[in-house]
Amino acid sequence: MSDIIQLLPDSVANQIAAGEVIQRPASVIKELVENSVDAGAKSIQVLVVDAGRTSIQVIDDGKGMSDTDARLSFERHATSKIKKADDLFALHTMGFRGEALASIAAVAQIELKTRQASEDIGTQLSISGSKFIGQEPCSCPIGSNFKIENLFFNVPARRKFLKSNTTELNNILTAFERIVLVNPSIHFSLYSNGTEMFNLQPGSIRHRILDIFGKRLNQDLLPVNVETSLGKISGFVGKPESARKKGAHQYFFVNGRYMKHPYFNKAVMSAFDRLVPLGEQVPYFIYFDVDPHNIDVNIHPTKTEIKFEDEQAIWQILSAAVKEAVGLFNNVPTIDFDTEGKPEIPVFGESGNQLSAPRVNYNPSYNPFESSSEDLVSQDGEQQIGQTFASKIDSNYSATTQGEIFESKQARVPEEWGKLYEGLKSKTVSQEGDIFESRQNTVVESKEHLVEDKSPLHYQYKAKYIMTAVKSGLMIIDQHRAHVRILYEQYQKQLIEHTFQSQKVLFPETVRFTPSQQVVLQDIFSDMVDMGFELTDLGGGSYAVNAIPMGLDGINPITLVEDIVHSAIDMGKSMKEEMRQSLSLSLARNAAIPQGQILSNEEMEAIVNGLFACSNPNYAPDGKSILCILTQQEIDHLFG
Fold it and tell me: Could you tell me which residues are beta bridge partners of residue 190?
């Protein structure tokens, strides 16, 4: 039998490696920009055309390469970062494998111009699909200039499965943000189709965060700083009121490298227990500085997962540091007794004028039962309370004896008072039967109302579920999901028929988006206008919300718009119909009644009737169950 195992050619091996390292245009930019950072660049410029499909260009002012290094850099496992296996555990650079340039060259056409500071002339190199085209001297500035064209030109299947330009550009911006956040001392700029997306000047970490995500975030950042024998943890966490359900900016960096770590995410969120609603996330930017010997970076093709040697100890340190930051923020401020420059208020009694306590004058012999309301009013109209009955007789009335006063009061009583009751007795007797019958009717009606109140059609359990009896047993409905399904189909119909109506807000509010969010917003802008939104571009990523769809009373317009954009980012839809479904679902979730809201019988009846008028009453738009039925046999079985 002949041998069947053979060594793959380098071109095939490079394409296999490219499948792991180069997944999309964002991967190319990540690898090239990280190489520029490792080269000591102070200014890095990125230019993309058609979200990287047509071309990607990365220009830096770093060390550059010699003509020999430029040629050798595109070979597999050619690197200047490590020389022996032990160097893998003492890494201080972003790249180290030597696979990135070889993988890019296997699936694209590359043109490189580079020059070192010690040389007067640079070198230009051309490679297409791992095939060396040519190399020649050229005039170029110090640093490197990589131009990648026609990505995946020789792998049609990979190019076909790239997402839309909006999605791919959003991935590029996300990868770019992760790099610039950890290198605040470098000037970065990014252009898409000639339009400037980022222009970040060197500064502190806080300034870099605000330049990317907006100045409004400044008031929500709490500093975190702790240093132990295991390493240093620094950065910022958001205040509890900055929590949101979607779109929270959460970043971990280890020794200048972005990483994902769900375990450490739980450590941060544990500090916000009972401070933020369940399901909401708080933004954070945490930077770890640890000994490279205590971490393993080489466990993932894209190096986004890192293994820590003392993971449990770092978890406890991180949790304590975040709790301390949140605790310092929540402390009640002390009273400030600094009176410098304040007006002086004299101390009571300092002048020597002693004031006596007020005294209450009263008559101990006063008897309220010996006077009337008329006796309490004097001739001049002033009320006399502290006088006795006898003294008032002497001072205010002409009569001098109590007998005369009593007689004068009797004289004022009308003599024909009895005529007021004539005919009353006969009328009462004639209506006695009617009153009895009406009382009987009232009792019957009250019993009927009592039965209705005691046995409603629907029952609400813990302000979360609606329970109602059906033929087969007891039906339990999730009120929030049911209302989401009703509103979702209603919004879908209005989108198709273009019957959405706008409601102007009294005072327009301003919302700011990052460049990656603006890309998605522009893609869904026309659909949002059809839904009733009115947004005005103010420049710099800021938009004024002038109107929202009618019927969304009590909803914050800023939160509503942000949630819709974040939902579109999470869904990553490229088809128009799928994007509209995402918008309708996001709007329905915001407008639906929340869990915990108490409903009346009429409201529960409306939800039940509206649910069974939907095309699919069993499942919510996201596929979750809306209702379940507890059959009569199951109920009987529970009672034995």
Answer: 46, 198
Within a 10 A sphere around the Cβ of 291, how many other Cβ atoms?
14
Nearest-5° Cα angle at 376, 370 to 382: 160
Sign of the four-CA dihedral 360, 365, 368, 373 = negative
Sign of the Cα torsion 145, 149, 153, 155 reads: positive
**Reduced 3-state DSSP string for 342-367:** CCCCCCCCCCCCCCCCCCCCCCCCCC
Choose among 200, 190, 181, 194: nearest CA to 26: 190
Tokens read off for 231: 């390493």
Mean pLDDT of all residues in 67-93: 67
Burial class (CB in 10 A: 0-12, 13-18, 19+), 488: buried
Mean pLDDT, the chain, rounded, equals: 79
Residue 462 confidence (pLDDT): 86
d(CA 102, CA 17): 9
Mean pLDDT, residues 607-622: 88
Strands across the sheet with 502-512, in order? 502-512, 542-549, 534-539
Separation between Cα atoms, residue 639 and residue 48, nearest integer Å = 69
SS3 470: strand
pLDDT confidence of residue 358? 79
Q: Which of 41, 95, 105 lies closest to 72 in space, CA to CA?
A: 105
Q: Give the separation between CA 592 and CA 605, rounded to whole angstroms.
A: 16
Does the pLDDT of residue 344 top 70, yes or no? no
Residue 466: which of 445, 448, 447, 481 has the closest Cα? 481
Q: Specify the 3-state DSSP secondary structure of 553.
A: coil
The span from the CA of 99 to the CA of 78, in Å, is 7
| 571 sits in which H/E element | helix 557-571
Of 147, 190, 162, 163, which Cα lies nearest the Cα of 43?
Answer: 190
pLDDT of the residue at 405:
46
Given a cut of 80, whether residue 574 has pLDDT beyond it is no
Question: What is the pLDDT at residue 337?
Answer: 53
- Using one digit for the tens of pLDDT, what is the confidence trace for 78-90? 665 555 555 555 5
User: Residue 560 and residue 566: Cα distance in Å, rounded?
Assistant: 10
8-state DSSP, 50 = G
Angle between helices 311-330 and 262-270 (to 10 degrees): 30
Can you give the pLDDT at residue 389?
43
* Closest CA relative to residue 43, chosen from 168, 164, 188, 236: 188
Beta strand pairing call for 195-200 and 131-138: unpaired
SS3 track for 68-135: HHHHHCCCCCCCCCCCCHHHHHCCCCCCCCCCHHHHHHHHCEEEEEEECCCCCCEEEEEEECCEEEEE
3-class secondary structure for 253-285?
EECCEEECCHHHHHHHHHCCCCCCCCCCECCEE
Determine the Cα–Cα distance for residues 488 and 613; give it in Å rounded to an integer. 13
Distance CA 198, CA 189 (A): 5
Q: In this predicted structure, which of 95-104, 226-235, 455-464, 532-541 has the lowest mean pLDDT? A: 95-104
Question: How much is the pTM?
Answer: 0.66
Task: Tell me the mean pLDDT in the region 7-21.
Answer: 64
Q: Of residues 51 and 301, which shows the higher confidence score?
A: 51
| Residue 608 pLDDT exceeds 70 | yes
Answer whether residue 70 shows pLDDT above 80: yes
